[in-house]
Amino acid sequence: MASQAATADTGSGLSSGISRREFLYYVWGASIALVSLQGAGLLVWFLIPRFREGEFGGTFTVSVDDVPPINASPINFAEGRFWLVNLDSTQPNDLMYQAEDEPNPILGVAAIYKVCTHLGCIYSWTPTNNRFECPCHGSKYRLDGRRVESPAPRTLDRFLLQAIADDETTVLAEATLSEDFYEPLVLPSGTAFVRVDTGSRKNGPSHPLLCEFQGNCP
Ligand code: FES
């Protein structure tokens, strides 16, 4: 009997310490606390800036020596997801020229976002055709990002670009806006670097297709 009583006491720990209902309350409370902690962790993760300088979404400082020559093939900056181009439509060649509806010269350096304005594919520069071409649905763009052929609905987007002095701090000039779109920037003398802010992007405008002027739209 004595051993039976001892077995009953130690085998029902819940009844001697806490009731089943209390135990379920504790489990429920612990679950709530765990979910709350997870939520708080997610909130902190969301609030922490996800882009450090040099990463996409931040700023990139590029030596002026890495800017391409005027109307030459663009330079690819893969980490920043942009192309640097150097434009002068007054010195036309196969890559860059002035269309009939472009009354003003297109001059300066621009940073072009590497994502197609149609459905977001990554396009590339096609040197044999002297233009950007998207592999997904065939959109084509001139060196400055203007649409040559659809289905792209607009010109390629651009990032804010600044001319920086050799102290890597002083901003000598920055791209201005026209129709809420960054114009190419003519680099002033003394420019040692260009800085591209990939956190500041402007959508390209919906100008007519260039192929319409050339009479060779597909
Ligand atoms: S995503 Fe580039 S043409 Fe469709």
TrEMBL record:
<dbReference type="GO" id="GO:0016020">
    <property type="term" value="C:membrane"/>
</dbReference>
<protein>
    <submittedName>
        <fullName>Enzyme</fullName>
        <ecNumber>1.10.9.1</ecNumber>
    </submittedName>
</protein>
<keyword id="KW-1015">Disulfide bond</keyword>
<dbReference type="GO" id="GO:0046872">
    <property type="term" value="F:metal ion binding"/>
</dbReference>
<keyword id="KW-0560">Oxidoreductase</keyword>
<dbReference type="InterPro" id="IPR017941">
    <property type="entry name" value="Rieske_2Fe-2S"/>
</dbReference>
<dbReference type="GO" id="GO:0051537">
    <property type="term" value="F:2 iron, 2 sulfur cluster binding"/>
</dbReference>
<dbReference type="GO" id="GO:0004497">
    <property type="term" value="F:monooxygenase activity"/>
</dbReference>
<keyword id="KW-0479">Metal-binding</keyword>
<feature type="domain" description="Rieske">
    <location>
        <begin position="83"/>
        <end position="170"/>
    </location>
</feature>
<dbReference type="InterPro" id="IPR036922">
    <property type="entry name" value="Rieske_2Fe-2S_sf"/>
</dbReference>
<keyword id="KW-0411">Iron-sulfur</keyword>
<keyword id="KW-0812">Transmembrane</keyword>
<dbReference type="InterPro" id="IPR005805">
    <property type="entry name" value="Rieske_Fe-S_prot_C"/>
</dbReference>
<dbReference type="Pfam" id="PF00355">
    <property type="entry name" value="Rieske"/>
</dbReference>
<keyword id="KW-0472">Membrane</keyword>
<keyword id="KW-1133">Transmembrane helix</keyword>
<keyword id="KW-0408">Iron</keyword>
<dbReference type="GO" id="GO:0016705">
    <property type="term" value="F:oxidoreductase activity, acting on paired donors, with incorporation or reduction of molecular oxygen"/>
</dbReference>
<dbReference type="InterPro" id="IPR014349">
    <property type="entry name" value="Rieske_Fe-S_prot"/>
</dbReference>
<keyword id="KW-0001">2Fe-2S</keyword>
<feature type="transmembrane region" description="Helical">
    <location>
        <begin position="23"/>
        <end position="48"/>
    </location>
</feature>
